Amino acid sequence: MPYIVKYSLQRIGLLILTTFIILSLTFFLVKMLPDAVVSGNEAAQYAFWRDQANLGYVFETSNTIQGYGEAVLTYQDPSGIMHIFYREPIIRQYGAWLTGIFTSWNWGTSSAIQPGSGAMDIIWSRLGPTVIINIFAMLISVPLGFVFGIIAALNKNKWPDHLISTLVMVMISVPSFVTISVLMLLLSYNTSWLPSHWPSSGGAGAYAAAMVIPVLSLVFGTVAGFTRYTRAELTEVISSDFLLLARTKGLTRTQCIVRHALRNSMVPIVPMIIGEFVGILSGSMILEQLYSIPGIGGLFVNAITYKDWNVLLVDMAVYTMIGLLANLLVDLSYGIIDPRIRMGAKAA
Question: What is the per-residue pLDDT across 104-155, written as a single tens digit (0 to 9) for each?
Fold first, then answer.
């Protein structure tokens, strides 16, 4: 079996195990928190806890039971029958949670954000805006970061390098939530050129205009990161011995940079693109909240605020999977970018 295939299978197996461990720990920690806050009247609350009983998280009885703590709900239906719900022990809830996921892909229902709706359905309905905004941010950031980094490296210790390096320090130092606040102030409230929040309805033009501010707020810091790494790697390669040897063999400076320097400097930089995507995906949580974007980042914050633990668990699962898949792609990309690298190969 080729080394890259063997290594990939090992990494995928480790990814599955790591995901299982992280989500299991998250489940236990979340279930130790106070009970979820259920929105709606008593009938709606009864419907929610009845669903939780079907999932195995709580059990229903008509009499008070000692030893199970305080009841999460005591409800008397129109016929006069009492319905009292107690939390199951956490280990039983954990078993029911795993059973629901593996048998019917059921992650539970929302208690506050969209009461009665499936937690996984809520995530899928809000995943689009988050991914689209982050993809556009990456499509803009990567070329600009590479170009500015190359310009700075080729003009090391000259005024273009000093100018770019100063701007990079400024952009990295300013948090994205400060950037979006300034952009909203300048482009929305002062000039009314762009919308100040995500539109609830409208055509493609309205959504395109609404994406400008959040995308720009993510772009500044990401461009600065790519510029810094590109400059550092390219500067190191340009000053290396093998490039000096290439020059002594008759290659021009341009040929050395295009044929050798850029290619070698891309080995550590290209995998960084994947990791940077995960970084801005996490950083967009606050931006989505500030700009009222209906994405999974703002949903994560709302799930914590309203104690909607089922939605929080699914959101955590999505972020965990994205992060671990990104790490897997980063590891595998080294061997693709540079064939000399053989992941998992045994030493000769």
Answer: 888 888 888 888 788 899 999 888 888 888 888 888 988 898 899 889 988 8
What would the 3-class secondary structure string for the chain be? CCHHHHHHHHHHHHHHHHHHHHHHHHHHHHHCCCCCCCCCCHHHHHHHHHHHHHHCCEEEECCCCCCCCCCCEEEECCCCCEEEEEECCHHHHHHHHHHHHHHHCCCCECCCCCCCCEHHHHHHHHHHHHHHHHHHHHHHHHHHHHHHHHHHHHCCCCHHHHHHHHHHHHHHHCCHHHHHHHHHHHHHHCCCCCCCCCCCCCCHHHHHHHHHHHHHHHHHHHHHHHHHHHHHHHHHHHCCHHHHHHHHCCCCHHHHHHHHHHHHHHHHHHHHHHHHHHHHHHHHHHHHHHHCCCCHHHHHHHHHHCCCHHHHHHHHHHHHHHHHHHHHHHHHHHHHHCCCCCCCCCCC
Q: Which residue has the higher pLDDT, 241 or 196?
A: 196
